[in-house]
Amino acid sequence: MGVLMSRRQTVERVQKVSLAVSAFKDGLREQPSTRRRAEAGTARQGTLEQEVQEGDDEALAGPSQPEESSASKAAWERLRDGRGVEPEEFDRANRFTPPAFIRPKRELHDDEPPDISLEQREQIVNDEMCEICEVWTAESLFPCRICHRVYHDGCLRRMGYLQKDSAVEVTETAHTETGWSCYYCDNLNLLLTEEEMYSLMETLKNCKIIPESCLTLDDFLHYKHQVHKQQFEKTMPEAKEEQAALQFNALDPDKKGHIEWQDFLSHESIQLLQKIRPQNALLRLLTPKERERARAAFLALDQDNDGFIGEGECRQARHTWFRKHQKEMLSCNVSISHVGPISEGSPASSRNGKSPEKILPATKQEETRSIDWPGFLRENVAYILAARPNSAALHLQPLA
């Protein structure tokens, strides 16, 4: 409405000035001209014509401002709706229509502890029909390693979710232990409710973050400093800044000097979930496949079968099993996430059957503190969720 009023006022101003110029010209023709009057009239005419020209320029410049704001508005709308792809990147004539993402809603019982038994295993059953075209074609369907959905690679291409590089990833890893995350599970931002998403958008806007842009280390640290100052009303300490720098390096595994927008958004989404929701609510986000992998991880660490593991072993799982493995660690040479114990036949295992990740030494205090199955889940749930995206970036850096 403000833009429309501004344009109308500009047009009215131009019309008034045009009438004044016409009247002035008519007056010059009717009155005898002297040199002094002619010079004054010329100067006045030049001034008025210049004002008319400025008014015309303003009128022409008016429509360009809404176009710039509409582009920015579209980017924020894509962020709000969980869409991470520019519409103009697709040839819609040969594409399927992308789905309308519906953000989850909090339930009354979400904060209550869920019943996730260690002894009772869950049966994992994938869908029989493609999530996109709803057609069954047996072995050509590719399952998601997080949820129950299955897909055709052709349908994923026509949706615009499968490009050349990711096509190799899907075909080579979807049926392996490491697996592939579908476009629902790959986007951690879709775990946020509408209220949580608006809260994140407000933070990004206040910190002058441009959506769909890459962030350098300086940009990332400046953003973290602003967020810390807004939250605690004091400067971020050096220890926090060092941790933020480590997180940046974890989000930039290829050492490109910047982090991609989707990786930054996933990191901020899981950070916000940790701040707003209690651990019981986060546990309810785990899928049956993730719970089964967590069971396998705990049972592998519980060597004496007494239902307890040491804190050092829990930390070991956090730094190895619930984090990303770099491309050079994988025999299939793709970027994937791995959640669960690494078996001898796993693509992430080394020749001697042990994890290629460096095992952190446990302190005496960690060795004495025991953690049961529910505690193991609560302390690791955020890292399990953060391992969902296919990106090689580590979206939640474990504390040293």
TrEMBL record:
EF-hand domain ranges (all copies): 289-324
Any coiled-coil regions, as ranges: none
PROSITE patterns: EF_HAND_2, ZF_PHD_1
Family annotation (SUPFAM superfamilies): EF-hand (SSF47473), FYVE/PHD zinc finger (SSF57903)
Chain residue ranges for the region called Disordered: 29-113, 341-366
Any one Gene Ontology molecular-function term assigned to this protein's record: calcium ion binding
Keywords: Metal-binding, Zinc, Zinc-finger
Ranges of Basic and acidic residues composition bias in the record: 29-39, 75-94
Gene3D superfamilies: EF-hand, Zinc/RING finger domain, C3HC4 (zinc finger)
Taxonomic superkingdom: Eukaryota
One cellular component (GO) term of this entry: nucleus
PANTHER family with a match to the protein in the record: PHD FINGER PROTEIN 24 (PTHR46453:SF4), PROTEIN KINASE C-BINDING PROTEIN 1 (PTHR46453)
The protein's name: PHF24 protein
Species this protein is from: Leucopsar rothschildi
Lineage: Eukaryota, Metazoa, Chordata, Craniata, Vertebrata
Gene designation: Phf24
